[in-house]
Amino acid sequence: ISNLPFVYEALPMRVLFGVGTRSSARDEALRLGMSRVLILCGPAHEGVAGEISRELGDLHAGTYAGARMHTPVEVTEQALALARERRCDGIVAIGGGSATGLAKALALRTDLPQIVLPTTYAGSEMTPILGETKGGVKTTQRSAKVLPETVIYDVDLSMDLPVHLSGVSGINAIAHSVEALYARDANPIVAVLALESIRALVNALPAICADPHDRAARTGALYGAWLAGICLGAVGMSLHHKLCHTLGGSFDMPHAETHAVVLPHALAYNAPAIPEVMARLRDALGVDDVPAALYNLNRAIGAPRGLRELGMPEDGIDRCVELAVANPYWNPRPLERAQLHALLTRAYLGDAPS
Ligand code: NAD
C-alpha cells in the first residue's frame, strides 16, 4: 500500500446496473419522492425519452430535449424555465455527459433530486463536478448539490452508441482511471477501482468495434466506465485532464476524441515520475510499454490520429503551453515548457508517444 496516510471519502449514491434497468425509472422516482418529473436529454434521445415518459406515467410533467455539449448557461436557463413552469420536483436525465451536465446545472440552481441514465462512457454521473460555459468561457466547480441521487446503468441504452464514439468515450473513461492512480490524493480503494476499470475497458473496446451489438462487451465497457467515473469523482486529476480542458475550452474540440488523442502522450510525460504506477499498469495490461499500448488501442478503435485532425490550429500548441505554465497545477512531474511543447506537438501531428 502506497500513499500513506490516505483519506477515503465515499460519495452517497444509489446505482442500479443491468440490462433493461430503465424500466425501474418510475420506482426510483417514487423512492425519491418525485411527483412531477422533468425529463432531460439531447436530440438523439427523444425517442428513449418518450419511452421513459410512458414508464413514468402520471409522474411525467415535461421533457426538455435541448441538452448540448459543455453545458451553455442559455440552455440551462431554458430548461430551468420549463421546470418552474411545470412545477417539477425531480429530474430524470438520459444521455451522455451533455445531458448529465444539464441535469447537474439545474440541480445546482434548484437542489432538485436527479436520476441519471447514462448512454456514453464519460462518467459525469458519478461526480460532484459541473462544468458550465458562459460567453465562450468554461468554468468548473464542485458541489455536493450536483451529485445525482440515483444512477441507472442500462446496458441496452449504450447498444446504439456509434462505434467511433464508443471507442473514444471509452478511452475518456480510461483517462479518469489512469490519472486517479497517480493523483496527489490517490488511495488504495480508488486504485483497485481504477485498475479494474482499465482492464474492463481495454478488453471491451476492441470487441465493441468488431461487433457493436456484442452485449457482453457493452456490459464490460459500461461497468468499466462506471468505475472510472467513481475515480474521477473521488480524487483530483492532473496534466492529462487539464490539457484536455484547455484544448476543449480554447479550440472547441470534441471532448472524448481529444481525451483519446492526448492520453498516451500525457502518460508518457508523467511516466518517469511514477514508476510504481507504471509497473501496476504494465501488470494490469500485460504489456511492456503502456503509452505505446494506449496509442495502439487508439489505432485499433479508429480514434482520430492527432489534434490537427480535430481542427486544432498549429499555433494552438504555443497557446496551450503558455496557459499550462501560467496557471500551474499539481502534477507528478513538474510542468516543463520545452517538454510540454514536444508532448503537444506529437499529439498534434499524431506521432507515437515518447
Ligand atoms: P455527449 O453527451 O455530448 O454525447 C456525444 C454525442 O453522442 C452526442 O451527439 C449524443 O447525442 C450522442 N450519443 C450519446 N449517447 C448515444 C447513444 N447511446 N446512441 C447514439 N448516440 C448517442 O458527450 P460525452 O462525451 O458523453 O460528454 C461530454 C460532456 O460531458 C462534455 O461537456 C464534458 O465536459 C462533460 N463531462 C463532465 C464530467 C464531469 O464530471 N463533470 C465528466 C465527463 C464529461
From TrEMBL:
Residues 12-154 form the Alcohol dehydrogenase iron-type/glycerol dehydrogenase GldA domain. Keywords: NAD, Oxidoreductase. SUPFAM superfamilies: Dehydroquinate synthase-like. InterPro entries: ADH_Fe/GldA, ADH_Fe_C, Alcohol_dehydrogenase_Fe, MAR. Residues 169-348 form the Fe-containing alcohol dehydrogenase-like C-terminal domain. One of its GO terms (molecular function) is alcohol dehydrogenase (NAD+) activity. Belongs to the iron-containing alcohol dehydrogenase family. This is Maleylacetate reductase. It comes from Trinickia symbiotica. The lineage of its organism: Bacteria, Pseudomonadati, Pseudomonadota, Betaproteobacteria, Burkholderiales.
